[in-house]
Amino acid sequence: MSRLLVACFVVFPFAGLFLTFPTSPTWDEAILNTVAYVVAVALINVWLGIGTAWWLLFTESKWKAWVEWLTFLPLFIPVLASMFGMYIALAQVGLIGTYTGVGLVLLVTTLPYSIRLAYNAMYVIGRPLLEQSLTLAPLTRIGFVLFPLMKESVRTIVLFSTVIVLSQFVLVQLIGAGLVPTVTTRLYQAYGGNDVSLALQNTWVLVSLPVLFYIGLGAMFGIWIRLVKGRLQ
Amino acid sequence: MSLVLSGIRKRFKDRDVLRGIDLTIPNGEIHALVGVSGSGKSTLLRIVAGLETLDAGSVTWEEMPLDGVPPHLRRITMLSQSPLLFPHLTVGENVTLATPNRSREEAEAWLTRVKLPGRYDAEIHELSGGEQQRASFARALAAAPRLILLDEPFTNLDPGLKSELQRLIRDLVRELELTALLVTHDREEAMLVADRVTLLATGQVLVTGTPGRLSETESTFGDFVEVSGTLLPSTDIDVSTEPTSDSIVLVRTFIRFGHHFGEYRRPTGEYVILPRSESFKVGETYYLRQKQGGI
Fold this sequence. Notes:
The structure holds two protein chains of two kinds. Chain A is mainly alpha-helical. Helices cover 82% and strands 0% of the residues of chain A. The relative contact order of chain A is 0.14. By secondary structure, chain B is α+β, with helices and mostly antiparallel strands. Helices cover 24% and strands 33% of the residues of chain B. In chain B, helix 2 (91-98) crosses helix 3 (104-113), helix 3 (104-113) crosses helix 4 (129-142) and helix 4 packs parallel to helix 5. The two termini of chain B are 30 Å apart. The interface between A and B is medium-sized, with 22 and 25 residues.
């Protein structure tokens, strides 16, 4: 009974979505921007997240503690609290109201989580096993060992950064100064204007992107592993 | 001369782990670094592998400096306490990945040499601990190294597997004319496997020599070396026919580097390897005693 109740709680908010599909979806600038941000931020998160986590795990630098503290600082400070600081900093260099400014802020928001996820994954895999891979040439190491070992973490980083990017409204609106349309900013306008059709279309984009990423990444990783193992037969 | 370590120093935070290590290991030699935990032996091995930076000194191979050379360009492989096989690959795939040409045939040949024929497609978890360590050894050899580093590779094995793997590694390293650097805290292991032994203590070389010579001349050899996992009190242990409170039974005899050794079983079930008189007989009871003037 309790399970049924929980299922109802989970499904109920989405019931409307499944009962009503957008009738005439249009591919507009907001969707294009959102997809571009999601892809770019996810890729940079994977690259910098794993790179920084690797450095944190292996470095003996005296700066390690400082870097660790700085990279994890945004995890302790709510985004809204740090947003105004980012606003002032970006205004100083003329990035308010620009696509670059919005991209930077989305990166700052997501990167600490990605570093933490990658670091935890490497910690679980263990330094000795990762060190064992150092005897392989860099491309072999990444393609045959690190990527397959960390594929689930990569997927989590991509999905996590995607969902965070798709959840930002205030941040994008403030730093973008209303000049950078995304699905979320369009969605809020649609809510305000009572445009159900447009709201529905943008909501479906928000729902579809992570699902497509999840399925797409799963398929891509599966193919990659088969290729890797095929090369070793 | 092949591997030369000169004036190696390493400091972790406020502790000097290595304090000026000088060591020369000729080509084709199996060299053991012996010392208790914290003596710096594993750190030294990691420096040679390129996994750790050094604060001072140099590592050279055939007079070519290795400092700053990344691990994958050193042609040095390492066998650790744990097999460290990549879990997403099969046993054979782990070995193939290490071969220069990614050749399955070559990998299968290496698996056969370490007595794992037909296990190419086995998953890692299907192998026992000893088999995994053998597969790891096959991978280390398949990479065509010029130097193989052995970081206490027998520690987690039971006695039977341990001596089997010791023989296998020693014989294959000799057959392939590789240079090997073995780190161990176990004196008997060093004596059985190595051509020469270096004793390390508090980050310094105490002495280097053949196991036989060290065993007979260096009173320090036993001072800090565990025998079958137990630190024997004092150090100058000898085996005698005169009864003492510490009896042992001779279970096996062998000659190593021209010296007569015996494997003895203590009443507690531990095995120790110590020198023996030629007249000693297997199955007889002998006695441990403190030796005057060192072993």
